[in-house]
Amino acid sequence: METFLQQIVNGLVVGSVYALVALGYTMVYGILGLINFAHGDVLMVGALVSLQVILFVQKTWPALGAIPTLMIGLSVAVTVCMLLGYVIERAAYRRLRNAPRLAPLITAIGVSFLLQTLAMIIWGRNYHSFPQLITTAPLQPIDGVFITPVQVVILISSALLMTGLILLVNKTRLGRAMRATAENHRVAGLMGVDTNKIIATTFIIGSGLAAVAGVMFSSNYGVAHYAMGFSPGIKAFTAAVLGGIGNLGGAMVGGVVLGLVESIGAGYLGSATDLCHLPIWAQSASLQTTCANGGSFELLSSNYQDIFAFVILGIVLIFRPTGLLGERVSDRA
Amino acid sequence: MKKTLIALAVLGLTAGAVQAQEVVVKLGHVGPLTGNIAHMGKDNENGVRMAIEEYNAKGVTIGGKKVKFELVGEDDAADPKTGNIVAQRLVDAGVKGIVGHLNSGTTIPASRIYNQAGIPMISPSATNVTLTQQGFPYIFRTMANDAQQGSVVGKFAATKLGKKVAIIDDRTAYGQGLADEVEKGVKANGGSVTSREFTNNQATDFMAILTKIKAQNPDVIVYSGMDAQGGPMLKQVKQLGINAKFVTGDGGCTPEFIKLAGNAMSDKAYCSQAGLPLELLADKTFKDRFKKRFNVDIQNYAPYAYDAAAALIEGMKAAGSWEPAKYLPALKKVHFKGVTGEVAFDDKGDTKFGAITMYQFNAGGWSPLK
ipTM score here? Predict the structure, then answer.
């Protein structure tokens, strides 16, 4: 039972980071119908910028406590990434807004490479150790289930950020403009919405969230690296599709579900397919020798962790092509 | 004015003549210079560069001609597909010998290309057993292979650390090969393998598999993969309150691992290294020479890359030719004192003097165990 609860905790932590990144994908997709493949790399930039700032602050004002240092690092990273998001939109996507869909997609991949290469030039190819300002000494809320303070912070702050975003989109004037632009940006423009500004704002918000996710990611695992954005980027994109791309709630649900599925998959796929659980008469002689003394013969082990997540995605998309919470959106472009 | 011009022209001519007598022989190095383990690729390249520079400085005469070696560096990004492309590029560039690749996964497919082209290749770090068992006469390595290393790690874990061992590997040719040998080593020494788990060489989150391992309560966790995953993994071992000892293969036996694992490092962390600790290298000044030349510490295999390049050059010297077909027989018989110790190859191309050392974390660094 502790093992199961521990897997749930693991899944929730990973899932909430996925969800935060997925929001960026889904917001941009919702408004522009564009898959911004550079989004994962914005996360990387956030992590590396905050690393740089934290190291600087620690050197210059060593007396400053851990939390203020982290906050300074985080706020600089968020600011830089928001700026970066704006620049990406302005320089790479705006001119292609009315181009065929494939053009901005390729540009997005190009921007992703560009960011990675720039980061490699600036920060080098090494893995950097990320200072753990919030302690990682594990707590045990339930006997046998471990959670670190960093993970608690991740869970709480991503929940807060997501709620904040939902409120922003559904309750504010800016949110209304965003929804209108998503519906039809030409008509929204006719109604007096400055769509350029709204689209830029979307990128800025998404990039800010990615920066937060990057800092969380690095604080949790204690590493930062120029290629670190790729994997969470792809997973978050998957989460966005799983939840229904273009739908904010869907991105969150998708992220958390994906995290849980991965964690449970890696934890239980092996023993669920362990042939040693077969009744003894169904086991071949060689299998019996393998299984003797607590041995195991797992058909599908954690080897298939990632595949398992994509199998779930496939199944969901077969039965619900628009994702878990996806609305039917008319095909644009 | 005119006179000085003429004098300069004459000087230029003589300089040209001197250079014409000197033959340039190209040696290739290939390893990942971009990507996750670029630091190790650069380390190897530095080793080769240093060998070439030192031999050039000493002056090498082969078959009566003065030879200047030149390094042709390629980047395989630790990717087998890219590895094959750059292997072909090195062959086309007319290199006379190759040091590389770094990873077993890239070296094994590329070795076919070198062997077909008839150019000797010596890997300083690809330890997968298969490499030298393909019956390719042109393929060598200066490092003990995984079978040797894995059985030492397995025996060490089962006899010194505890009977119940969990093994995780990164599903690369290196990680998987080493893990298989560790499993055999554990079982041969009366231990049992509680589970084999898998991750990949891009992963950062291992909580799920570690949670599963925790439930089986092993005495030892062996990770067979690179430092970029091993370091964060050890951190997560601690976060989950797992008490087992942690052993990693040579891919994790780096200063990088210690940095990445941070405060999770303790005397419960061990690693194995094919070859000797830097302090026990035959050439005591190598470490400092390297630091002075490149202003970075040796990561891992640079001394073996140095010896691989040296073996090529010694082979050429012995044969009196830099043409691969001519110096191959001499390379097979080469026996000299390199920076790591004695260098010689067996009939498969494996090193004859492959040592394996176990290390334990102690006072801020990996310190060799007896």
Answer: 0.85
